[in-house]
């Protein structure tokens, strides 16, 4: 059980992909040679290259090595989101590539995207630094993911390289109790070092007043995880106990459907078909094929400066060929779109007899 039956229509349920049916149909036509590719549903924007933590398992460590820094300016981001909203992009997810709360202009971008452009905005943060201005802006977000990954300060320091647990807990309390409209999600990436404290973290999340607790395995195939093996049965036992903590105001998600039984990535889909659902834009001002291929040069699709350039390369022959050349087992680690690829294939082959409800 990954979520309770009462709460099956939730954000982590990959069945959500079927609501993108019209996009799926157009992606299929485009892959078959049509010129039109619909705009992405979401832009994943990384405003800052740099972080105030040093998590050894961070999937962006390949391009954050050596304390590299960079930041997108306010004017660039305002122009970009204006273009995206006019183009038809619905969601703006501000994340990293670094820690987005380190951008002092990001609250202005959130307010502008939500209040002026009517986009849905989401924010992914380690919650170490929360200015009052950012806390106000986050109250406009549809959801905020809080990457905590520990239930106590010792584990936190061990896996994240810095002793900031107390500040994080203080900030989460402040966020959650000041705002009941945004979905705040306590995130827990399962690692060898924290595998015995999933339940404790879930209890802590409930005490802090957040709405959601989300646990999933770390991407063990991408990152060189140190230490001992995972005790999978013990983890499932904790998952079950976590679900017992659920009530109308607190939901638990123990997400495993994107992994094999040993919690390693699986590629049980036919090919890369769903990548154009999300447009990742990074601190170098460029867009990449997929959020799992950030800063990989061969997957850079094009520059977003000026924004109008996006229409020159989006849906181009090169973009299409880049996707067609992907061999998931060879080129990809975890794929967050796994089920979406399979859904597109089902629509392409009409394996569900779609004219017969
Ligand atoms: S991880 Fe690979 S298969 Fe999945 S969307 Fe990205 S490029 Fe495509």
Number of domains: 1
Write down the overall geometry.
Answer: globular
Bound molecules: iron/sulfur cluster
Number of helices: 13
Give the biggest sheet. 8 strands, parallel
CATH homology group: Aldolase class I
Q: Could you tell me the radius of gyration in angstroms?
A: 20 Å
Mean pLDDT: 93
CATH topology: TIM Barrel
**In CATH, what is the class?**
Alpha Beta
The number of strands is: 12
- Give the name of the CATH architecture: Alpha-Beta Barrel
The fraction of residues in strands falls at: 5-15%
Sheet with the most strands: spatial strand order: 9-8-7-6-5-4-1-10
Residues in helix, %: 25-40%
Protein topology:
Blueprint: H1 21-31, E1 42-45, E2 48-49, H2 61-64, E3 70-71, H3 74-87, E4 91-94, H4 106-116, E5 120-125, H5 132-138, E6 143-147, H6 153-160, H7 165-177, E7 183-190, H8 198-208, E8 212-217, H9 232-244, E9 251-254, E10 278-281, E11 286-288, E12 300-303, H10 310-313, H11 317-324, H12 328-331, H13 338-349
Parallel strand pairs: 1-4, 1-10, 4-5, 5-6, 6-7, 7-8, 8-9
Antiparallel strand pairs: 2-3, 11-12
């Amino acid at each position: 059980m990954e979520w309770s039956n009462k709460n099956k229509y939730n954000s982590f349920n990959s069945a959500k992909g079927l609501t993108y049916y019209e996009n799926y149909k157009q992606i299929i036509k485009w892959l078959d040679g049509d010129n039109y590719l619909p705009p992405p549903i979401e832009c994943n924007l990384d405003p800052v290259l740099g972080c105030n933590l040093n998590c050894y398992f961070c999937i962006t460590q390949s391009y954050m090595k050596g304390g590299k820094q960079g930041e997108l300016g306010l004017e660039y981001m305002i122009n970009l989101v204006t273009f995206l909203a006019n183009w038809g992009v619905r969601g703006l997810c501000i994340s990293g590539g670094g820690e987005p709360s380190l951008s002092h202009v990001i609250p202005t971008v959130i307010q502008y995207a939500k209040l002026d452009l009517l986009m849905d905005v989401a924010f992914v943060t380690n919650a170490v630094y929360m200015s009052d201005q950012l806390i106000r802006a986050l109250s406009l977000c549809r959801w905020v993911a809080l990457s905590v990954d520990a239930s106590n300060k010792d584990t936190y320091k061990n896996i994240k390289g810095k002793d900031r647990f107390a500040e994080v807990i203080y900030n989460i309390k402040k966020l959650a109790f000041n705002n009941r409209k945004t979905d705040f999600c306590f995130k827990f990436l399962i690692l060898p070092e924290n595998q015995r404290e999933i339940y404790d973290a879930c209890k802590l999340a409930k005490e802090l007043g957040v709405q959601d607790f989300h646990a999933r395995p770390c991407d063990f195939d991408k990152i060189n995880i140190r230490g001992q093996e995972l005790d999978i049965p013990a983890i499932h036992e904790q998952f079950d106990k976590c679900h017992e903590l659920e009530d109308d105001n607190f939901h638990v998600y123990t997400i495993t459907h994107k992994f094999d039984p040993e919690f390693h990535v699986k590629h049980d889909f036919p090919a890369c078909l769903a990548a154009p659902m999300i447009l990742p834009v990074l601190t170098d001002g460029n867009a990449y094929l997929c959020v799992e291929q950030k800063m990989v040069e061969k997957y850079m699709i094009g520059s977003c400066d000026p924004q109008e350039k996006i229409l020159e390369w989006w849906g181009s022959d090169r973009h299409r060929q880049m996707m067609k050349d992907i061999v998931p087992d060879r080129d990809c680690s975890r794929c967050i779109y796994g089920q979406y690829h399979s859904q597109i294939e089902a629509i392409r082959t009409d394996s569900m007899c779609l004219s017969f409800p």
